[in-house]
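Reply to dn_fold:

You asked what the input looked like. This is it:
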Amino acid sequence: MKPLAIALLAGAFACLAGSAYAGPREIFLAHLQQAIRQNDMGWIGSHLSFPVAIRGKHRLVLRSRQAFTNFDPALIGPTLRAAVLAEKPEDLFLNWQGMMIGSGQHNVWVCDVSADPSKPDYRIFAMSGAN
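and this is what came back:
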């Protein structure tokens, strides 16, 4: 998706949440949702922080981009996909581990890997409810 469209989508999220500011969390959520809508596994793969824990029918740990590439077509099933696409910016769950996108047993966990707190760099480190 074009940067302008992502910015507009993130801005719309901010307006819906009652805020005039779309922060880095909202922007990352908009990017992730767009990548899932378009099955853009390249974008998702470039936003992983290895090792990535995958919990679903089977438990596995992806230790490299190549391992992700081997699984990517079937990794994000319909239930996980629906949970991430239904996430609203105001419902993002945050704790010491990072940010959870989704709900209950179907979610994606993201953390900021940046050394500079003023420039967050969110990466996916776990998925629950994956195929």
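Residues 7-19 have pLDDT under 50 and may be disordered.
Hope that clears it up.
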